[in-house]
Design goal:
4 strands, 236 residues, single chain, 8% strand, mainly alpha, 71% helix, two-stranded antiparallel ribbon, membrane, Mtc, amino-acid transport
């Protein structure tokens, strides 16, 4: 996560600058999803190992979803919307890919459950419901992290490109957008990570309602006295 700002600003700046041609969209979406796959893998819950096949499937699916969304939006908006709306193709693709990439990179948590503990840190069992909550929060955090730069910068660029000297200086567009994205990310990375607590909690009553077997394990591991709330690491 420490490389999120420099890596994200370079890739997001490129996506926002080179959105006009399909080949550029394909290349930069692929590059961005390769970076995101690495970030999602290194910031998963470390207690949930993945096989190589699972990682490759997650990477391929997320990249495909980003490309399909980007190319689909570009094609549709070219026919039904003006050039300004096409500037939002990168954000649509990034948001769609995050909804696919993160759950797939952490699929073992959804299948097998994530470790939950009592308030003293003693592991009392696993829960798939907890995994759904944690992963959903991470997806929302990642989209929130990217949103300000990718939603506000197109408006700024649309205004600046109406200024004659700036419009002529094409060489400045990419560095300007990259720097601006970096400024947004400098604030949004810590803000988005702080939206939800790292040590997340869930009511045991929810586990009892939706995961009878997991609740039985918690009940057994706590010698018949399960806590009302259990805690887990949601990842980043």
């Amino acid at each position: 996560m420490s490389f999120q700002v420099p890596g994200g600003m370079l890739l997001t700046g490129a996506m926002l600058t080179f959105y006009r041609t399909t080949s550029a969209v394909v290349f930069w979406q692929w590059a961005n999803q390769s970076f995101n796959a690495l970030v999602n893998y290194t910031n998963r819950n470390a207690n949930s190992p993945m096989t190589v096949n699972q990682m490759l499937m997650a990477y391929a699916t997320a990249t495909t979803s980003a490309l399909v969304t980007a190319i689909g939006c570009k094609s549709m908006w070219q026919k039904s919307a003006g050039p300004f709306i096409q500037r939002y193709v990168p954000f649509a693709a990034v948001a769609a890919a995050n909804c696919v990439n993160i759950p797939l990179m952490r699929q073992n948590e959804l299948i097998q459950g994530i470790e939950v503990s009592d308030e003293d840190g003693n592991i009392v069992g696993k829960s798939r419901v907890a995994a759904v909550k944690g992963i959903s929060q991470v997806v929302l955090s990642r989209i929130t992290m990217a949103a300000p730069g990718m939603l506000i910068l197109p408006v700024i660029m649309e205004k600046l490109e109406k200024i004659a000297w700036f419009r002529r200086m094409h060489i400045l567009h990419a560095p300007f957008q990259t720097f601006a994205v970096g400024c947004f990310l400098s604030f949004m990375v810590p803000t988005a990570c702080a939206l939800f607590p790292q040590k997340c909690s869930i009511d045991v009553s929810l586990i009892q309602r939706f995961e009878e077997d997991s609740y039985k394990d918690i009940h057994k591991n706590t010698k018949g006295s399960p806590p009302k709330v259990v805690y887990f690491n949601k990842g980043l």
